[in-house]
Amino acid sequence: MFQLGKSEKAFEEAKRYMPGGVNSPVRSYRSVGSNPPFISSASGSRIYDIDNNEYIDYVLSWGPMILGHANPEVIASLQEAIPRGTSYGAPTLLETELAKKVQAFMPSMEVIRLVNSGTEATMSALRVARGYTGRDRIVKFVGCYHGHSDALLVKAGSGLATFGVPDSPGVPQGVAENTITLPYNDSDAVRKLFDDIGDTIAAIIVEPVAGNMGCVPPEPGFLETLREVTKAHGTVLIFDEVMCGFRASSGGAQKRYNIKPDLTCLGKIVGGGMPLAVFGGSREIMNQIAPAGPIYQAGTLSGNPIAVTSGLATLSILQRDPTIFKQVEDATIALCEGFERLAAQYNVPVVVQRVGSMFTIFFTDKPVKNFDDAASCNEEQFKMFFHHNLSHGIYYAPSPYESNFVSICHKSSEIERTLAVADEAFKKISDTLL
Ligand code: PMP
Prior knowledge:
Belongs to the class-III pyridoxal-phosphate-dependent aminotransferase family. HemL subfamily. By secondary structure, the chain is an alpha/beta fold. The chain has 15 helices and 14 strands.
């Protein structure tokens, strides 16, 4: 019988010491009205909690674990690295090796800098774009999440959408003023803005496949429009591929849709589950960064040898066996087709959206193209689906505004088990429709 007794006690204690008991808001399960399992270990496609519940994991640490948890080769490389010391704050050979690998996957990243989180990558990319252009204004899209730096916490997705607070207190008015927001996938709005004030805009930052309002692919022509107007107005185009890099394709969304951005941000998979992220792009722009140029950016733990080892091991495996990208995509296709078939069988209106190995089940009857579409989905049905799955060993993101992910450890037996539980969940929802 599914129960979370130990986790519930642990959560009560955690709340005395940490805001809401967690170190990142969506983990609290507040949005689904329950308490989170406390995790004790993970291996392959599975994650385990302190009450000894076992789950097939589709959160995968919010994306990084494309090789599954505790990949033996990654773990072995970490075990080898740790005795050599955990941080030096000095250059290592590993960093250049990782830079070469990143460039092999994404050739637009001619010069890169390593940082510790996706937030740092996007925040720093913005500074570089502003320093390079000498302009202050930036454009972001409603429902895209680019981490929690001030300039980007405006009409943001992910946890902010989950909790209905798209703009955070504590962000100075003067900072937010320089962030212009437009609806995702609205090429006309982009063109109109650039016709009016394009020459004053430093950067467009975009999730080229949105993942933080659920999985929302770019409409044909949207990314092309961004490329065209930024080029015409001397604006820097930043692709935030922290989530979709290595998920949309081996070379991210930029390869899948054949658009070359000026700067790219990577996180999650690039660190193989350790705190590591990257931003990079054209030599001309990136060499404006100190000490090559005047734009300041730094970090005590940047390029940390343990994090870089984890990233290198992960990217080496992906490079050695590029069929991994097709394997995870095929598994995700099988899963999503299964969801669609089952939902149709029970007459539950859902739209399953997928790009590569990321997906979201939207409880709605029309395609989700932007944040307003995502926000109009049926929340109660999502919650029923989520809770039935959690209590039957299937672990999805606890919010309708998130993407789920598949790893190479999700084989046909995992897919079958997942679909069997989805069958029960859709049936349960259909019973409420009668
Ligand atoms: N950009 C995108 C597209 C993300 O999905 C995230 C995190 N989910 C971030 C930036 C921020 O990354 P981090 O949580 O590592 O700061």
